[in-house]
Amino acid sequence: MASSGEDTCDDSDAPPVAAPVADSTHLLGFSDEILLHILSHVPSTDLVLNVRRTCRKLAALCLDKSLTHTVLLQKEYEASEDKVKRLVKEIGRDVQQLSMAGCYWLSGATVEHVARCRGLVRVNLSGCPLTSLRLSKVLSALPHLRSLAIDVSPGFDASQLSGECKATLSRVRELKQTLYTPSYGVVPCCTSLEKLLLYFEILDRTREGAVLSGQLMVGQSNVPHYQHLRVFYARLAPGYINQEVVRLYLAVLSDRTPENLHAFLISVPGSFAESGATRNLLESMARNVALDALQLPKSWLNGSALLQHLKFSSPFYFSFSRCALSGGHLLQRVIDGGRDLRSLAGLNLSGCAHCLAPDCLLRKAEDDIDPAILEALVAACPNLRHLNLSAAHHHSPEGPGQHLCQLLARLPRLRSLSLPVCAVADSPPRADRAPVPPAMRAVPRGFGKKVRIGVPSVPFPGPAGPQPSSVFWSLLKNVPFLDRLELIGSNFSSAMPRNEPAIRNSLPPCSRAQSVGDAEVAAIGQLAFLRHLTLAQLPSILTGSGLVSIGLQCQQLQSLSLAHLGLMGKVVYMSGLSDMLKHCKRLKDLRLEQPYFSANAQFFQALSQCSALQRLCLVSRSGTLQPEAVLAFMARCLRVVVCHLFTGESLSTCRSLQQALLRSFQAERPALNVVVFPLLHEGLTDVIRDVPMVHLDEVTLFKSRVAEEPPNLWW
């Protein structure tokens, strides 16, 4: 759409007028509604500071309230201090929702500019550096605030909060608080709380070696107010101090259970002993409330009849992760012989080794599942969108319609799915059939010929191509809108796990996983909407041809996590991986965990073609790297801000490379976070504690993310 000459203006600061164009398909020829939708995908800083200055039409549209109402700065790694200050100055008065989650590179002085957005209703400042005084100044200027997310770091002092700040907090209804020190934080000031999310990331010892204690909180004059609470969620990192502190939060709940409580979730790695106060709390909940979401520590559920007594209204999320829950208990206490679970959207059964078997007393972990239990579960929960069955051996018996994949294919609304590798194997190995040696399952190479690994333009027969007859292929065909998929070996243990102890000598893969290889991986290429993929402990990956199929067909892929593919001690899929990466134009996050991996020029040359890449984490016991190749890669990939390399290189080599990377690229990349360190060095724990939590949680440390939390827990 051409602009008329009457739109011209002598003011040199005014945006230029769009040049006349003859072609009606020019961008500005679209309707305002379409243009607004397009502009909604442009980062806020670019939208206001750059796009707005291109022409008068876009200048007006970029300030439309639909675009300035909500500003999301998380993962806008190019948002410098100056850009954020200018953005707030330009549109601060119009912003009602602002997320600066994980903006660790911004100074406290810059974050303080949030106080200019006086109309804010929701603000997320998790991961931002804020002292008690700065937080007080910001919140004092936000009288309309109803939703808040912050970190509570060492040195926090609630007595420094002003009266205006406490008045704002008294009106807050939703609070997300990440604790790095024993404290109630701002919870006692939030007297109108309806949703409380607590993340406990407190280390047992300070940097100086001093032991922390939750007793620091005892005697504080203010305690939490829970009378209006509807949602209580607590996620604990490993460590006794986190358990000690969460007990102090729960003590208030045990005195008087909120009448409107409908979601109660506590995620604890390892064991968490039940106390008298928690028993009273659970008994009170069983008597007085009907829940819609539930997650409890495994030690509270194991051997308990609690599930029989709790009442549920329209449940949307259950997590029984790591619980000793048998299929019989699942049917009796959860499905309850006909309970209406059509509202259930998320179900986490990770680590529940016996949840698909009638009894867990006489059953071995490797025994076949009972298909009738899974069939009853699928029938009762037809609208499941998120399902996690990982960290267990779920072996299907022979027989038509008996396979786990065939039953899960009846859940077409699935958006995320996590399965053990052995669960997708077509059939159990037969005693009268000798196992096929790995070398015989490779792509036929001919006599003495070298073959370029890749996927031809037409499907080719044989083990390396997708086989429509396989149960896994059929499952993926019936869940076409899957957004996240995880295939994780039942015995897989990461060298750098999120909430589990690191195990250097992991168990061998399940025997049934031996029949899951390139063909099954190639079948994943059917998922045109797949954005997140995790593959871990697939010993029969030989050529990596299935990876190439994914790279070619899954064009929406944004995050990729690969771990322990192929035979241990050998990296045989390097050529296939290199071919795959050439096609991953939207890939933002790559995590690769592979012993003896050589991060050489070939690998980084292929990775350089991932033009959207932002975060890279490489974990390789006894692995090597070429410093020159890393530097060249960083110079080519201008968007990369996270480079975490944990290999078998010496400490001096790692330090030298890390310093070179910071010296070369930190000035032009404000969010740059580089860690290069020997994987088996005793000082690794101290190095990890300096990594921003957003990267630890999403890239650096391994974990299953399917149904980890209730859907839409936070905005």
UniProtKB/TrEMBL annotation:
Q: Does the keyword 4Fe-4S apply?
A: no
Q: Name a biological process GO annotation.
A: SCF-dependent proteasomal ubiquitin-dependent protein catabolic process
**Pfam families registered for this protein in UniProt:** F-box-like (PF12937), LRR_FBXL18 (PF19729)
KW Nucleotide-binding (keyword) present: no
Q: Which CDD domains match?
A: F-box_FBXL18
- Could you tell me which residue ranges the F-box domain spans? 24-71
Enumerate the UniProt keywords alphabetically: Ubl conjugation pathway
PANTHER family recorded: F-BOX AND LEUCINE-RICH REPEAT PROTEIN 18, F-BOX/TPR REPEAT PROTEIN POF3
Q: What is this protein called?
A: F-box and leucine rich repeat protein 18
Q: Which InterPro entries match?
A: F-box-like_dom_sf (IPR036047), F-box_dom (IPR001810), FBXL18_F-box (IPR047948), FBXL18_LRR (IPR045627), LRR_dom_sf (IPR032675)
Q: GO CC annotations?
A: SCF ubiquitin ligase complex
